[in-house]
């Protein structure tokens, strides 16, 4: 690393090189800021892979109030209505902001936005770029803007390993690269590290996204919320590739349907059919497969021959698998796609730890509730980045304690955690499966080993799931299939999770006591 750490003392530190991190850095300009990316920019960011686009009420027949209603309906009673209203109101301006940064959104011949439809939206309000390459185009523009900005010090291949905290206030970041570990003294840190899909065997997320930001926050003592709500996308490409290629919901918005090997449309009689909320469609696909069927996305009639032009990225990987979507059904299955829970934050992105903010998928703002409405995630990252930046600017640099930090923990490896969460925290959950996961994760989370951070995040998800004795949105328990009359957000700290897990582990009778 050629940049001197001494030149960066006191600068805000943004952890994460996806859309949320890049946009926060840009919104902080011209204030000097440090941006950490554990890989080359864009290489392991879920934002780069986003196909659907941004949801915003920019159509002539649409309003933020309609967008709000659809978001709350999909969120299964758990959206924070005030936060959701504020975010969707700001969405149209976020589209314009991105366009101003050079994002080439798709437009109609008359120059207006070309808008798509996705599940549970009552209007065509999805703004796309290059068809199914929206995330790639947004990241291209944001990366270019970041590299042009003289106020942003970009440290690539640098990973944040721990937050230094004193009296519940951030004092620095312990980071590492190929040259070893070092400390960035600061009293302002933003976690923008994305999701947790890499904790599961079957996911559409990059394998490097396995909740590192949540582990950072949890180990710093921050409160996390609604961790049990994991969204499974119903139409991941059913093949050997991992991460699993995604088949965007926009294809179903164009009229594609779900069928099995017999040609039956198994969603046809459900409210909303193929455009029902994602949790409903994912469970229907899961159950149909469990009954012995194969499941497919049938786009042969709609969009039919227009498929390759409308969805060039998807068309390309289908072609590599020997499938022509215009003439062949596409094999699909559910896969982990998005995490509704995360670091509990207020309207400015502030966590329960002084000097720690979160933005993007790592944050729990209250927008998504128990089930994210399609294409609200990129929008949330862009909208909230401005508010996080404004909050940081209002704090300013402050005292920083130089702590005697221990050496950085070993590099994280989630491989031991993936089979545990895949088995115990899938589309359908139950008490026995969740408890088995907790008993397996608890010893891993307590150790200071390569699996400890991933195991801690997985354990906190499992504890949240065992405590929520109902089915709501992305959390479905076969032993508690009904939805409780009152929706209550969950809250959890690292200490609380470990105590709850210990009690479950210790409640298992030993062979000797069972005999007596």
**CATH topology type of the largest domain:** FAD/NAD(P)-binding domain
Give the structural class. Answer: alpha/beta
Integer tally of domains: 3
From the alpha-carbon coordinates, what is the Rg to the nearest angstrom?
Answer: 22 Å
Can you tell me the CATH class of the largest domain? Alpha Beta
> What's the N-to-C terminus distance?
62 Å
Number of strands: 19
The largest beta-sheet arranges its strands as 6-2-1-10-17
Catalytic activity: L-aspartate + O2 = iminosuccinate + H2O2
Pathway: Cofactor biosynthesis; NAD(+) biosynthesis; iminoaspartate from L-aspartate (oxidase route): step 1/1
Pfam families: FAD_binding_2, Succ_DH_flav_C
Subcellular location: Cytoplasm
Structural overview:
It is a single chain. With 516 residues, the chain is of the alpha/beta class. The protein has 3 domains: 9-229 and 340-395, FAD/NAD(P)-binding domain; 235-335, Alpha-Beta Complex (Flavocytochrome C3, Chain A, domain 1); 414-515, Fumarate reductase/succinate dehydrogenase flavoprotein-like, C-terminal domain (Methane Monooxygenase Hydroxylase, Chain G, domain 1). Helices cover 34% and strands 16% of the residues. It has 16 helices and 19 strands. It has helices spanning 19-28, 46-49, 64-74, 81-100, 134-148, 212-219, 250-253, 278-290, 307-310, 312-320, 376-395, 418-424, 431-446, 452-467, 494-506, 511-515, and strands spanning 13-15, 33-37, 54-55, 115-116, 126-127, 152-156, 159-166, 169-177, 180-185, 189-191, 224-225, 230-237, 257-260, 295-298, 330-339, 342-344, 356-358, 363-364, 491-492. The strands form 5 sheets. The protein has a 5-stranded parallel beta sheet with strand order 6-2-1-10-17, sandwiched between helices. A 4-stranded mixed beta sheet has the order 18-16-11-19. A 4-stranded antiparallel beta sheet has the order 12-15-14-13, covered by helices on one side. Helix 12 packs antiparallel against helix 13 (431-446). The longest helix is centred in the N-terminal third of the chain and has 20 residues, at 81-100.
């Amino acid at each position: 690393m050629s940049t001197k750490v001494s030149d960066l003392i006191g600068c805000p530190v943004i952890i994460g090189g996806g859309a949320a991190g890049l946009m926060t850095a840009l919104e902080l300009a011209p204030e000097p800021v440090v941006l950490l990316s554990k890989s080359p920019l864009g290489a392991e960011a879920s934002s780069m892979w986003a196909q659907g686009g941004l949801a915003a009420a920019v159509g002539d027949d649409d309003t933020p109030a309609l967008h709000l209603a659809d978001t709350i309906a999909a969120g299964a009673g758990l959206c924070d209505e005030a936060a959701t209203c504020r975010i969707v109101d700001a969405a149209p301006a976020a589209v314009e902001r991105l366009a101003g940064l050079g994002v080439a959104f798709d437009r109609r011949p008359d120059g207006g936005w070309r808008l798509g439809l996705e599940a549970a939206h009552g209007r065509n309000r999805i703004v796309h770029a290059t068809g199914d390459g929206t995330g790639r185009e947004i990241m291209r523009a944001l990366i270019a803007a970041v590299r042009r900005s003289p106020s942003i010090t970009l440290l690539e291949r640098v990973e944040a390993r721990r937050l230094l905290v004193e009296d519940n206030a951030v004092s620095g970041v312990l980071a590492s690269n190929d040259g070893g570990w070092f400390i960035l003294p600061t009293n302002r840190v933003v976690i923008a590290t994305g999701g947790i899909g890499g904790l599961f065997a079957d996911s559409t997320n990059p394998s490097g996204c396995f909740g590192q930001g949540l582990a950072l926050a949890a180990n710093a003592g921050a409160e996390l919320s609604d961790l049990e709500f994991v969204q499974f996308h119903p139409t991941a490409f059913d093949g050997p590739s991992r991460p699993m290629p995604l088949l965007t919901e926009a294809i179903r918005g164009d009229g594609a349907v779900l069928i099995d090997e017999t040609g039956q449309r198994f969603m046809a009689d459900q409210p909303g059919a193929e455009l029902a909320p994602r949790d409903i469609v994912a469970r229907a696909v899961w159950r149909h497969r469990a009954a012995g069927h194969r499941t497919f996305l049938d786009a042969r009639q709609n969009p039919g021959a227009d498929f390759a032009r409308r969805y060039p990225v998807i068309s390309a990987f289908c072609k590599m698998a020997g499938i022509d979507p215009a003439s062949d059904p596409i094999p699909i299955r559910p896969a982990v796609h998005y995490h509704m829970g995360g670091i509990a934050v207020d309207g400015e992105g502030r966590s329960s730890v002084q000097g720690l903010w979160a933005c993007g998928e790592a944050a729990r703002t209250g927008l998504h509730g128990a089930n994210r409405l399609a294409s609200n995630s990129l929008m949330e990252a862009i909208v909230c980045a401005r508010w996080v930046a404004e909050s940081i600017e209002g704090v300013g640099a402050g005292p920083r304690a130089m702590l005697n930090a221990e050496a950085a923990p070993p590099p994280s490896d989630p491989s031991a955690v993936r089979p545990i969460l895949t088995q115990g925290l899938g589309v359908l959950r139950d008490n026995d499966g969740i408890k088995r996961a907790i008993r397996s994760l608890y010893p891993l989370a307590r150790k200071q080993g390569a699996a400890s951070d991933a195991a801690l995040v997985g354990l906190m998800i499992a504890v949240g799931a065992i405590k929520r004795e109902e089915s709501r949105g992305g959390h479905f328990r076969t032993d508690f299939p009904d939805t409780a009359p009152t929706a209550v957000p969950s809250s959890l700290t690292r200490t609380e999770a470990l105590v709850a897990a210990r009690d479950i582990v210790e409640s298992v009778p030993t062979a000797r006591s069972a005999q007596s």
